[in-house]
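dumping this here so i dont lose it
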C-alpha cells in the first residue's frame, strides 16, 4: 500500500493539472481544448508553409495549388460582446475564384461552444461562385477572451479560420439576483429566512406606515432593477380596496413570488404593522398616486 501522504500528493498534482487546464480554457488562449481537435489536426495533411502569392491569398491557405482560389472575406474575425449577451454569430463570405467546382464537406469548430451553419452539406461552390456561412458561438458561462478556430474541409484539402470574442465579466449582482429568484421560486417564503432576511426583513423591523412600505414592499416593487414580473404598485388598476391590500399582504399570492407577510403565515409582520400598512396604502399612497397621475403630462393623442 502507498503511504497516504504520497497518495494525497498524487491527487493534489492531478488536481493542479486539471485546474491549470481549466484556467487555460477559461482564458480562451487558443490552445486546442478537446484532445479530438489535436488528433484531427494531426491527421489532416501537413500544411506546407506558403508564401503569400501575388494574388494576395491569405498565408493560411493550405489547399493544393489548383484550389488556392477558395478565398474568405477574412480569415480572422473579432467581436466584443455586450454584458449578458448569450450568443453571437460570425458570418463569413467565401468565394471560389477558380474555374472548377469546390465541394466543402463540412466546417469543424474547435469547441463544442460553436456551431457552423452551411447553406447545405456538402456545399458545392461552382466556378467564381460565392456564398455565406455562419458560426454561432454560445457565450453562456464564459468571460474573458474566447479564441477559437474552425476548419473548412473540402474534398481536396482544408482551410483554417479563426474568431475571437471578448466577453465582459458577469455582474455579480445579476448572479445574486438569479440565484435568489431560483430560491424564491422553490419557496416564496424563503425571502424572510437566512441571508435573505438581512435585506427583506431586518429593515422592516419595528417600522409602521410609509416607512414600512419602503422597507418591506418597495425593495421589490419600486426597484428599477426588479424582475419583469414584479408590478409597479403605483400603477395597479383597479386601485386595490383596503380589503384587497390586506388580503395580499396577509397571504401573498400563492403560485407567484409574492410572499405572505403575516406572522400567522410565517411572515415577518405583526397585526399592528399590517394595519398601519393597509392604512398608509389606501390613504396617503393612493392620494400620492392620484396627484402624480394628474401632474403627468397628457399623453399625445
Ligand atoms: C420578494 C419580492 C416582493 C416583496 C417584498 C413584495 N412583493 Fe408584492 N409582488 C411580488 C411579485 C413577484 C408580484 C407579482 C405576482 C404575480 O406574478 O402575479 C407581486 C404582486 C403584488 C401585488 C399585485 C397582486 C395582483 O393582484 O396582481 C400587490 C398589490 C402586491 N404585490 C403588494 C405588495 C405589498 C403591499 C408588499 C409589502 C408588504 C409587497 N407586495 C412586497 C413580489 C414582492
Ligand atoms: C443585499 C440585499 C438583498 C438580499 C440579501 C436578498 N435580496 Fe432579494 N432583492 C433585493 C433587492 C434590492 C431587490 C429588487 C430587485 C433587484 O435590485 O435585484 C430584490 C428582489 C427580490 C425578488 C423579486 C424579484 C426580482 O429579482 O426583482 C425576490 C423574489 C427576491 N428578492 C428574493 C430573495 C431571496 C429568496 C433572497 C435570499 C436567498 C434574497 N432575495 C436576498 C435585495 C436583496
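and the seq i came up w/
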Amino acid at each position: 500500500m502507498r503511504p497516504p501522504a504520497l497518495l494525497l500528493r498524487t491527487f493534489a498534482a492531478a488536481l493542479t493539472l486539471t485546474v491549470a487546464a481549466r484556467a487555460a480554457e477559461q482564458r480562451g488562449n487558443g490552445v486546442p481544448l478537446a484532445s479530438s481537435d489535436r488528433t484531427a489536426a494531426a491527421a489532416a495533411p501537413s500544411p506546407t508553409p506558403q508564401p503569400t502569392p501575388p494574388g494576395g491569398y491569405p498565408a493560411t491557405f493550405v489547399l493544393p495549388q489548383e484550389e488556392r482560389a477558395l478565398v474568405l472575406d477574412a480569415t480572422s474575425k473579432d467581436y466584443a460582446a455586450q454584458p449578458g449577451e448569450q450568443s453571437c454569430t460570425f458570418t463569413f463570405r467565401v468565394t471560389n475564384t477558380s474555374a472548377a467546382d469546390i465541394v466543402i464537406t463540412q466546417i469543424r469548430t474547435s469547441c463544442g461552444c460553436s456551431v457552423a451553419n452551411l447553406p447545405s452539406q456538402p456545399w458545392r461552390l461552382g466556378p467564381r461562385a460565392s456564398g455565406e456561412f455562419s458560426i454561432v458561438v454560445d457565450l453562456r458561462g464564459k468571460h474573458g477572451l474566447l479564441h477559437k478556430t474552425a476548419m473548412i474541409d473540402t474534398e481536396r484539402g482544408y482551410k483554417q479560420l479563426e474568431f475571437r470574442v471578448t466577453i465582459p465579466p458577469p455582474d455579480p449582482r445579476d448572479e445574486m439576483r438569479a440565484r435568489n429568484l431560483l430560491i424564491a421560486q422553490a419557496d416564496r417564503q424563503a425571502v424572510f429566512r437566512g441571508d435573505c432576511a438581512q435585506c427583506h426583513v431586518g429593515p422592516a423591523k419595528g417600522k409602521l406606515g410609509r416607512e414600512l412600505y419602503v422597507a418591506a414592499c418597495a425593495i421589490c416593487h419600486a426597484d428599477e432593477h426588479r424582475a419583469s414580473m414584479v408590478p409597479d404598485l403605483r400603477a395597479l388598476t383597479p386601485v386595490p380596496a383596503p380589503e384587497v391590500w390586506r388580503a395580499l399582504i396577509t397571504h401573498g399570492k400563492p403560485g407567484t413570488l409574492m410572499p405572505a407577510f403575516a406572522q400567522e403565515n410565517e411572515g415577518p409582520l405583526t397585526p399592528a404593522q399590517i394595519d398601519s400598512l393597509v392604512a398608509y396604502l389606501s390613504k396617503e399612497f393612493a392620494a400620492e398616486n392620484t396627484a402624480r397621475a394628474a401632474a403627468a403630462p397628457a399623453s399625445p393623442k
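The chain is about 35% helix and 20% strand.
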